[in-house]
Specification:
heterodimer; A: 654 residues; alpha+beta; 5-stranded antiparallel sheet; 20 helices; 21 strands; B: 329 residues; Immunoglobulin-like; 6 helices
Amino acid sequence: MTPARREIETLLLTSFAAVPLYATNAVGVLPLVMFHAVMAGIILRVARGKSPELIPAPVMRVVALLYIGFYVVDAAFISRNAIAASTHLVLFIATYQPIESARTRNYAQRLLTTALIFVASIATSTHITILLFVIAFAFLMFRQLMYVSHIETVAALGHEYAEPPSSRAATFYLAGTACIAAVLFPVVPRVRNPMMQGIGGSLTNASTGLSDTIDFNHERSSTPDPSVVARVWISADAAPFFTPIRLRGAIYDRFSRNQWLQSAGRFRELRSRDGVYRIARPVGLQRVMTVQQHLMSNSRVYLPTGAYAVSGLPALFEGPQSEALTTMPLRRATDMVTLDVSVARDIEPLRSVEPHVVNYPRNDEVTALARQIVGPSSDPLEQAGKIEQYLSTKFRYVADPSAIGHPMTVDRFLLRDHVGHCEYFAAGMVALLSALDVPARIAGGFYGGRFNPLTGYFVIRREDAHAWVEVWNGTRWTTFDPTPATLRPGTDQTGLLRAYVSALGESVTYYWDRYVLTYGLGDQVAMAANAITAVRDAMRSVKVRMSDQMTRLRSPSTVAFILVILAAGALAISVAGRRRPVFDLLASHLRRFGINVGPAMTMEEALAELRANHPYDARELEPLIAMYEAERFSPHPDPRRRKTIRRRLAELKA
Amino acid sequence: MKAPPFAFDGVVRLTKVGTSYVLFTVVIGFAALNTGNNALYIGLTFLLGCLLLSGIASKGGLKHLRVEFSAIGQPWVGRPAHGMLRLHNDSRIWNVRDVVICGGELEPVLVPIVSRRSAIEVPVTLHFDHRGIVTVNRLDFYTRYPFGFFLKKRRIRIHGEVIVYPRVLAGERERRRMEATAEGEIATNRIGIGGEVHSFREYVRGDSLRHVAWKKSASLGRWIIKQTEAEAAKSVHVVLDPYKPLGVSDEAFEEIVSAAATYIYYSMERGLEVILSLPRVSLHSKADDATPLFRALALVEPAYEPFAIPYERNAVVFSVGRHDDARTA
């Protein structure tokens, strides 16, 4: 590889190291763009055969001196964050060093700077694709390190030697390193400093897309976001009764200036019994679900509708909004809570409540419409059912609120446009019920989810955010959903292959989240405990098996069988010994004296060697070898001679 | 031979790159422990894996190297001798790259790559600083491979003896001074290549039939060989007196040996026959080959008692102790 190509590869590696920073938002886009622009300029210069001095080195040195002061300003006033300011500094150094390399050999330092950028990139990344980045970076870095190793060695010798190709070697070492890293990762101790908040960036899917208010003063919008909010496990016998899933997190029961708001509630800690928090009274069929959930920044807990008890949380609070449940914030944004939730077909409040009709301003036209829809019916649930059916069949649903093209009031939705998304449908139904003096409210949360056949859970994503309606039937809140069922989130039809690919991707993400991102001390303790248990079980199993075997061995039939086997073995050895050629027996005997009788050696020669080293033994063996020679070359073989040789050899051996 | 700057006693050294790497790993480890960030743990385990593999690779690579000299050219004191090292990599796993081989007399040489389960020939240069039997009993192998974190060393024992010829003085002055004198084609009264008959002797095995004195053999009834007399113009007689009186330095003695070697060397270069006389032995050069003479000069040891070496009037005597009665070059 030519020096220019090598230099370009080094520059590309440095540039590549900073690519994930665009996605992680650890630093602003402007410094990153500036960094890559400068690096691209240097690369172009080197590619054209020029020196990397995009900016003259003396000027760059002055800039470097000035940057020391700028760093303080950056940390204190611009970034207001020492880590971001330090990352800026490292990026600056990474652009300075290639320019300086025209005068100073700083190859190793440049790689160190590149490694620092790499650390900044991975420290703030949580997506699984970072693994591919780590592998690609390691491959390129290994090539660079091999080059450094080569030039350091050659420099010490003072001769020029061609660098051997390094791609295959880098691949080999990358595979080895990855294997060792995979073994080390679970066992490196996770004893973290409890006082340190950490520099990890937030997961892109760490918060939900629900807003605190539903504000119809402005044009509503939503963007598809496949980030996972929660995973829900439901047993097969419960699924027909509790799907599609509704994770409820917000109740909008107040109207003000064309905004739907959550009422403030009393903030209080709920008491648990054996770790179980009871939040409602169950009615009807009951089952248990498991919910794994990323927490929002305000630590709100989203529970399935019908949830009456929950466990798996260190603490549970009611508030600060009405009927909202919150828990302790997690130490890391990447962490998830896993809850065991008891659900029932219907639930009633633990304490008596006095539901009120939402203060939606009365409008004659809306009231007339409501009366027209419900007709003579006076039962709140019957009225709600009719309105639900009316809206879901007579109104047009648009998935993207921005498609409406203008801000719209609920009245206009009901009376003129008849087009909207789930929030309008829910708000419209509440407005119609309020006109009829029926207590109703908007419930916000997530709906449906997609079943993953590979892992057996439902995946709820941010794009599954939904709004529906709860109507008071006199004793409890009952769920209604005026949005057309086939158009609700998570109900789009995809092909089987696409569904499986999606499920596979989700599974990988799940294992990544569970066993990499959120892997911690608790997992290590569990792993150690499992290992100890496994060893103990194995030892116990071996002990039991050995005991069984010993019992069996003690039986007379087994002892007799073993004796027969031993006798047969001894007989076979004896017969084999008798049938061995005499030459082999003599050779075997001579081997004891260190004489190896090869195929080209006669017994006479072996005897001569034995005479030289062991004269006494040679005298004993001499007549046997003479007998062997006589037998070997006699035209009349005599079995008695062979027998005599065998017997005498056996005596000598004894 | 001057040792390379990275030579050291011991087995392994952490290089500057390695030190930086270890410090970097410690910092990342500290950050990971402090923050509990598993992305940093991924980086940390990769760093540790790389460090571990680097150590295993450098050790495993050198461990399975075997080496032997496959050839060494004529070794002279003060002149580079070219040789060939045969390097075997018996490892089933590790290719070895960027290995520097050095030893006492060996000029450091870099072997770019020795693939696993293969052997290569490496041209080497040796430098000897004294004549005689030189034992090459070890070679040091150094490598920074794969990543330059460690400088790993392995000393390999080999068993090799080389007879190093004395120094031949180069330079025009020495050459002129050492040129053999042409004294005309006169008989030297020594047996050698020439036209005049010197003497007769009994045939012994190995004698050429061309030298049989047929008439004499016929008259005596047995094989008689005719010995001719060497011609002075085509031959020189060199005498090296190894006597080293007390007070004469070893360097002075070595200078005399070098002078004799130089004289023989240039005489051979001019196509003369050379006879070297040492105590109890006289050696003749054969055709263009004076190897036995140089070998004898390489092995000659100083004597601490005077010898009586018979030499002729025209002999060139090299001595450190008899300036009064000998002509020295």
